[in-house]
TrEMBL record:
The chain crosses the membrane at residues 16-35, 47-66, 91-112, 124-146. This is Abscisic acid-deficient protein Aba4 family protein. InterPro entries: ABA4-like (IPR025461). The keyword Calcium does not apply. It comes from Coraliomargarita algicola. Keywords: Membrane, Transmembrane, Transmembrane helix.
Length: 152
């Protein structure tokens, strides 16, 4: 199915899916940033709980796309242009974006866990991680070094 046809017919569905993927991790981020000391947050903000939970969304997205025959063609040659055209496909973009959200949440949960074990809150670092991902590790690492708690 041509990409333009997917975008023409499914523009509303694609927008809704993008919004869902963008907001799906918001409850975890809000809980870790605003209520870090809450008992239920400390119990649920574990990588082995939140990552599989959101991975179900990714699997569901891929399964629905597979059933509807919306997945892009497999890249036959390993080149920058082939990867770029693959990532331009709307469904591939949603899958890659969902992966990014899950990876950022995993990193945020690990920052949260380390901060709680070290006895401090990390709202700035968690907010940065929510929006910028791995760049949040720079201020978090600096904070750990200044506190002399850089040992994992």
């Amino acid at each position: 199915m041509p990409i333009w046809l997917i975008e023409l017919v499914g523009a509303r569905d694609l927008d809704a899916a993008f919004l869902l993927i963008t907001l799906m991790t918001a409850p975890c981020w809000i809980a870790m940033i605003v209520f870090p000391q809450a008992r239920y947050v400390r119990r649920l903000a574990q990588p082995w709980i939140v990552v599989p939970l959101y991975t179900v969304v990714l699997v569901l997205l891929m399964w629905k796309s597979y059933q509807a025959a919306l997945l892009p063609e497999v890249v036959s040659t390993a080149s920058y242009e082939a990867a770029r055209s693959f990532a331009k496909h709307p469904i591939a973009f949603l899958v890659l974006f969902c992966n990014l959200q899950i990876i950022n949440l995993f990193m945020g949960v690990m920052i949260y866990q380390k901060a709680m074990r070290s006895g401090f809150r990390a709202p700035v670092e968690l907010t940065l991680c929510c929006f910028l991902g791995a760049l949040a590790l720079i201020p978090f690492s600096l904070r750990l070094m200044l506190r002399r708690q850089a040992v994992l």
